[in-house]
Amino acid sequence: MAQNSKKMASTKQGEKPTAPGRTTMTSSAGVSMLWEAPHVLADRLDLDHNIAANVIELLDEGCTVPFIARYRKEKTGNMEAERLREVQSAYEELKGVQSKAGTVVKQVEKQGKMTDGLLAAIRRSITIEELDHLYAPYKVGSKATLAERARQLGLEPAAVGLLSQPHSYRPQQLVKPGEEGLQSPEEVDRGVQHIIADMVSKDKETMDTIRAMCKAGRVTLESTKSKSTAKKEKEEENTTHKFEQYYTFSCPLKFIKPHQVLAINRGESQKILSVKINIPDDVKTRFLTFCERRWVPQNAPPHAAGVIKKAVEDAYSRLIQPLMIRHYRADLTKTAEKQSAAVFSHNLQRLLLQPPVRGRVVLGVDPGYRHGCKLAVTSPTGQILHSDVVYLHDNRASREAGRIKRILEIHRCQTVAIGNGTACRETEAFFSQHIQQGTFRPLDVVYCIVNESGASIYSVSDEAKKEMPDLDPNLRSAVSIARRLQDPLVELVKIEPKNIGVGMYQHDISESMLKSALDGVVEECVSFVGVDINVCSETLLRRLAGLNAGKAKKLVEWRDANGSFINREQLRSVKGLGPKTFEQCAGFIRINPISINSSAKSTTEEEQSTNTAPGKKRKAAAEPKRKTKKAKTEANLTLNPLDMTCIHPESYSIALQFLNRVGGSLDELGQQNMRNKVQAALVKNNVERLAAELNCGTPTMQLIIDGLQQPLDYDIRAEFEKPLFKKGLVSMNDLKAGTTLTGRVTNLTDFGAFVDIGVGKDGLIHRSKIRPDRLKGKKSLGPGDKVEVKVLNVEPSRGRIGLELLTLIS
């Protein structure tokens, strides 16, 4: 049996496996893996193999997720950006496995301890955890394993011989008096057992079997109150009570929720909880029975069979069971972290894509007690008109109401944005009271609560110092709050995504994983909304698909030196932007004629649009500079109306052919006349037939049709709910079970959705109270959604409000 096992694992380094249709993957260190990425991803993510292969090919070519999601639908089967990010993340993990496999092989070979079996096991590994298990005995400074010490005594031939020819096993012949480990037949047996146990724990079929048995069995995660918790409860009651539900907790692994895993992990790290994985005894019994059939040769002498059986039991208790427990804990944590990152990403996307509130002067308020409430008035384009500090929560409140009224009157401001941090509730009460009393008349003032997470961090950042050098950091946060209402995307891209508090246990997960996920979401949002290249800020450009800080800077420098971009084709003349960069970013860049040759004043007026950095002025020339190192031709100074659409330059020829078929012209883009002509053409030919006739994919044809019909000022954010403006508030003490209210979702977690119902404390709709039939076709709720809810219970002393979703308000 051992010979068969060894033969199965004896593939040499660099040798191609013989399975038909399979190719190997090679790590950076030259180790050929015994799997191919498309197969692994297709199996792991339930994808079609060809689609998985196509996505991998595109990623390897340097394509970004937004570009693939919009312009390569033919290759991905119309895969959405969220799903593409999932594939990208899984592929990055596999590349990490490949890279680490090369490092492991190199280190083990350097020690002269590589064997055919170990190499084959490394090449089969598809997770970092598997590689860590294989490499653990060979790490520099690691204590030699029992099997390694037995091999150093020369007992490996005896172990291999025992499995293949048990009748010839003679431990007494290997005894060497005076040499530790070989002083008696019993010591020889133990050494042989350790080697066989090591072989069992690294055998693919054996490990696949125990995994299958555990999967079929009722493996549970259990947590209990740790011995030190009693003392902690007296000292840190506010901390420990959060974990009470996990003091006697047991749940099968297949049913445990990600947020439960993260909560238990946190409780364990704080020494409040003791945690263990429980593998049922019947799994061990069935596994030992399987191993007896697999590893113990038929007709083996009793002594030889006994040594092998003890080796198998030792392998399970000392090596395999601990490995499985570590694997389960690591897998649970990884899955929970991914889900946490996914929840944060979903919430962040909804927050970034909240519709801008255009055309309003806004008073931003950063609430505070002792140091007062910071105020900032911003123009409709985000320019700072006034800043001040007022004290609303002491005996000066009445006098300060008059000051605020004068500020509002001077700037004709009727919209107030209040940050949701400390003193938000009291500040909201102040404005609500004076609105009801008519203090601000004749102005019809309304207010809105704005998520201020990250505003204080941004206010002391280099970006804020550069943008508002003469403003106190405390006042900068008020400016940020006002601008977040005017254009959430433009303002929030200035802040590290992890500092925007719309996640679940985000501080407990891998920072690199979270950053990667959130940066991808920001890039997607900025790209799909699009940027006006002639007025957008460098900060916004950095977040566009295909660009980075260096390339964004090059674009802005070119714009400052040469004047406005006239068309997308001019992007090719920017030094440092090669063909690949142009391909990735061009479709997301807009050339708006209004922005070309604009004066400094008109540039400022455009700054707070979708694509602008509020408050940042750019010196625009009245006429673009015509003298450049490379003479401009008439062609690259020609406006192309298609540059205002989502249609990629690579599809312009197809778009023009289609326009010719329908009798349309570029001057009619986005107009009703164009929509009529397109719809008339679609009555005669469906999209699939048009795509075939014009020699393009159906998704590309649909994108062209949409791009020609959409208004030139089309904004995908218009599909989302606008902010909720209020004039009054309700106290939490006024709430009663059965009351029906409307509110806005502020955060989504695995266990439910938090909703601002205007009482200063968010209520929770538990996941069990969110019926799919009340979501009006949507998969889930998200930040910004307007909902109608029913109050189920109110606990003022604990600040808890239980809600039930009645309907999603469209």
Automatic annotation (TrEMBL):
This is S1 RNA-binding domain-containing protein 1-like. InterPro entries: HHH_9 (IPR041692), NA-bd_OB-fold (IPR012340), Ribos_protein_bS1-like (IPR050437), RNaseH-like_sf (IPR012337), RuvA_2-like (IPR010994), S1_domain (IPR003029), S1_Tex (IPR044146), Tex-like_central_region (IPR055179). Residues 738-806 form the S1 motif domain. Residues 1-12 have a biased composition (Polar residues). The gene is LOC109482800. CDD domains: S1_Tex. One of its GO terms (biological process) is nucleobase-containing compound metabolic process. GO terms for molecular function: mRNA binding; structural constituent of ribosome. Residues 1-26, 599-634 are annotated as: Disordered. PROSITE patterns: S1. It holds the Pfam family Tex_central_region.
